[in-house]
Amino acid sequence: MNDLTASCIGELVVEALERTAFVLAETIDQTEAAELPAATRFSGISFTGAVEGSIVLSASEGFVMELASSLLGVEPEEIDPDNEGRDALNELANIVGGSVILKMGGADKNCEYGLPRALAGDEVPEDSSVMIRCFIESEGELLSVGWLPAAGSSSAAA
Amino acid sequence: MSCNVLIVDDSPVLRAAIKKVVKLSGVGADHIFEAGNGQEALELLEAVCIDLVLLDLHMPVMDGEQFALELRKRPELDGITVVIVSTEGNKARLDRMKELGVVDTLHKPFEPEDLRRLIGKVLGVKL
């Protein structure tokens, strides 16, 4: 099983944002993340099979608006956070999840992909010793991405 | 370019993003169609003559693999070019899709220029 680190997830996320949406972003640490607007939008996607676990995205509303507006080529003011914004974050979860699975050897392993979905705040798993989390900043807005291996699985972090 | 393109993806935002790129490839807006899953795509194919399908794999109701299987069962739809645009990276699954007639794959995340080049390549048009 290829080892996954927060730094590795961060690189995958930054690449996904740049390639798909031309959103420039960089990884930051938790202290820097605490200075940014809090996350209020959440999305997750789960995987089963040879690699088991979930990717959870937590984003500030401004980040979600920026992401959706970049994907659609419109001004952020034209974005409905509960419609295009939510969908854009779900699609980012989908893309990041696929990249993480590939990084963990998914090209040669049988994994079942779930469908990404918006999460309510109380559905977001709390940080734990098994979760690997990275923090991303773009235009002063926050995105946090966590990989949570399924309980009892071998899909653990380095 | 007067060919008809069908974008099949359960994400409305990504369909819109892909549609932008398809338009930049020279396909008129009235020649671009959308479906949110494989079932919707099959229904649309009964009504519209499509040349190229840009197909996501992971979708509700009917996923991309099921769609490709159903497409193969319909000889009247033979000749439609299908390209996968997906996060799927499993080699065995992608090989199965090739056996079902998929001609190429674009892995997400992709740059818009990659998609534009692929459209040009499969439609045989130099961009």
Short description:
The complex is a heterodimer of chains A (158) and B (127). Chain A has 158 residues and is of the alpha+beta class. Chain A is built from four helices and seven strands, in the order αβαββααββββ.
Features:
heterodimer; A: 158 residues; alpha+beta; 7-stranded antiparallel β-sheet; 7 strands; 26% strand; B: 127 residues; alpha/beta; 5-stranded parallel β-sheet; 5 helices; 39% helix
Task: Describe the protein.
The complex is a heterodimer of chains A (158) and B (127). With 158 residues, chain A is an alpha+beta fold. Chain A has helices at 6-21, 30-33, 61-72, 81-103; strands at 26-28, 41-49, 53-59, 111-113, 117-119, 132-138, 141-149. In chain A, helix 1 (6-21) packs across helix 4 (81-103). The longest helix of chain A is centred in the middle third of the chain and has 23 residues, at 81-103. Chain A starts with 5 loop residues before the first helix and ends in a 9-residue tail after the last strand. The relative contact order of chain A is 0.28. Chain B is α/β, with parallel strands linked by helices and 127 residues long. Chain B contains five helices and five strands, in the order βαβαβαβαβα. Chain B has helices at 12-24, 38-45, 64-72, 91-99, 112-122; strands at 5-8, 32-35, 52-55, 81-86, 104-107. In chain B, strands 2-1-3-4-5 form a five-stranded parallel β-sheet. In chain B, 43% of the residues are buried. Chain A binds chain B through residues 15-16, 19-21, 68, 71-73, 84, 87-88, 90-91, 94-95, 97-99, 101-102, 106-111, 113, 115, and chain B through 10-14, 16-17, 20, 58-60, 86-92, 107-111.
